[in-house]
Amino acid sequence: MKMMETHSSDETYCVAEQMGKEASPGTVIALDGDLGCGKTVFAKGFAAGLGIKEHVSSPTFTIVQQYDDGRMPLYHFDVYRIGDIAEMDETGYEDCFYGDGVTIVEWADMVKEIMPKNTIWITITKDPAKGFDYRKIEVETGKPHRTAEHDT
Q1: What is the CATH number of the domain that holds 103?
Q2: Residue 58 CB: number of other CB atoms within 10 A?
């Protein structure tokens, strides 16, 4: 596991931007953390690293937003409002997860059953004792307790 600390939203954005620059097709990122921890800031930075110029926002009510103006497509999911895992089938998530683009899933722990084995799990946490803008960013690839039908 890799752990980073940031002390501003700009630093969080830059960490994500660098990850976006290094991303390859088929990358799936599970983004977890409490409300207001910086998941959307992270997604914006990651998109910038892919060369995406469009405005990136959390797709809370649409569940998925696709951005095509970077070096590869970005599929940005926010599954906070998913009531049942079966609802994910309606989103066409498999085409995104197993396609030629990069996928970011906010609140991914809610749909962990369908996340690919090689998912990069990123957890962002706040610690008010270290300052209002402090964030701890933990990065882990392929947590062993997570399974998906495509992993067999």
Answers
A1: 3.40.50.300
A2: 17
